[in-house]
Amino acid sequence: MDLAHNALMVLIALAIDALVGDPDRVWRRVAHPVVLIGRGIEALDRRLNRLDLDESERRRRGVVAITIVALAALATGAVIAWTLADIPFGVVAEGAVASVFLAQKSLYLHVAAVRTAFAAGGLGAARQAVSMIVGRDPKRLDEAGVSRAAIESLAENFADGVVAPALWGVVLGLPGIIAYKAINTADSMIGHKTERHLAFGRAAARLDDYVNLAPARLSGAIVVVAALLTRRPWRKAWAAMRRDAPLHASPNAGWPEAATGGALGLALGGPRSYGGRLVDDPYMNRDGDPQATPQDISRALRLFLTACAVHAALWAGALAVFI
C-alpha cells in the first residue's frame, strides 16, 4: 500500500474539485458515476427486496446487496487505478477521477444558493433552495429553520462529502473512495426505517455508520481548528462536540454539527419534520441560539472554506511524512 501515492492523489483530487466542482455541462451529457451506482442499487432493491419475505430473509438479502455494491465499487476502482498506473502522470488522472466523488465546491454552491435566495426572493425562494439539499419539509421552516437546515447540511456533508472519501482514499486509494461513495449512496437510498427498507437496508445503514466513524470525528476536530484560525470560540466548539455529539440519533452526524454550532454560537439540530413526521432530536450545542439568520449562513460558509483548507493541509502534511 503506497500511502504517499494515495495522499498525493487525494490532494490532487481536492484541488481539482475545489476549482472545477461538478460541471453541469458535463453531467448533462453523460451519467454521473454516483447516478450509475444509484441505478445498480435500485436494481438490487427491486430484485432482492420482496415484501412477501420474512424479516430475517430480507435482512440476509440486504447483506448480500450491500456486499455486491461494495465489492463492485472496489473492483471498479482497482481496475481504473491499475489502468492508469503505468501512464505518464497517472496519479493526476487518478486524482481527476477521484475528484468526481468529492463535494467541496458543489456543497459550497448549494448552501450559498440558500443565502442568495434569501436576498433575491425572500423566505419562499430560500425554502425552495434549501429543499435541494435537505429532506425535511421546507414549507414548515421559518427563516431560522431554513438557515439552520442549510448550516446543518454544510456541516454534515463536510464529513461524508469531503473528509470521509478523502480519508478512505488515503487508506485504500481510488478503490477506497469509490467504495465509500457506493456505501454512502446505498445508505441514502435504502438505509431508511420505512416498511420497505427497515430490514433490507439495515446492513447498508450499519456499514455506512462504521465507515464514517473515524471521518466524522476527524471532521469535527478540523472544524475546531478552523474555528481557531477564524477567531471563533474554538473552545466552545470543542466542548459542544464532546458534550452533545454522542446525544445525536446518528453515531456520526453530531460531531461536525456540534462543532459547527459551537463555533458559530448556534444551536443546530433539534426537533424537525420529515414527511409530516416530527423527529424530536436533541440540539447540537444546546447552549447556543436556535434563531439562525441568513448572515449565519455566510459565517458558516467562511468556516467551511477554512475547514477545507485545514483538511487539505492535513493531507499535505501526511504526504510529507509518507514520502
Number of extended strands: 2
Individual helix count? 12
Helix and strand pattern: HHHHHHHHHHHEEH
- Please bin the fraction of helical residues: over 70%
Strand portion, in percent? under 5%
For the record, the count of structural domains works out to: 1
User: What's the alpha carbon Rg, rounded to whole Å?
Assistant: 20 Å
| Neighbour order of strands in the largest sheet | 1-2
Alpha-beta classification: mainly alpha
Residue ranges: pLDDT <50 for 5 or more in a row? none
Shape: globular
Q: How confident overall, as mean pLDDT?
A: 94
Task: Explain the overall architecture.
The protein is mainly alpha-helical and 323 residues long. It has one domain (3-322). 72% of the residues lie in helices and 5% in strands. It has 12 helices and 2 strands, in the order H-H-H-H-H-H-H-H-H-H-H-E-E-H. It has helices at residues 3-20, 24-27, 33-48, 55-84, 90-99, 104-130, 143-172, 174-190, 202-229, 234-244, 254-264, 294-322, and strands spanning 268-274, 277-284. The protein has a two-stranded antiparallel sheet. Helix 7 runs antiparallel to helix 8, helix 7 (143-172) runs parallel beside helix 12 and helix 8 (174-190) packs across helix 9. The radius of gyration is 20 Å and the shape is globular. It starts with a helix and ends with a helix.
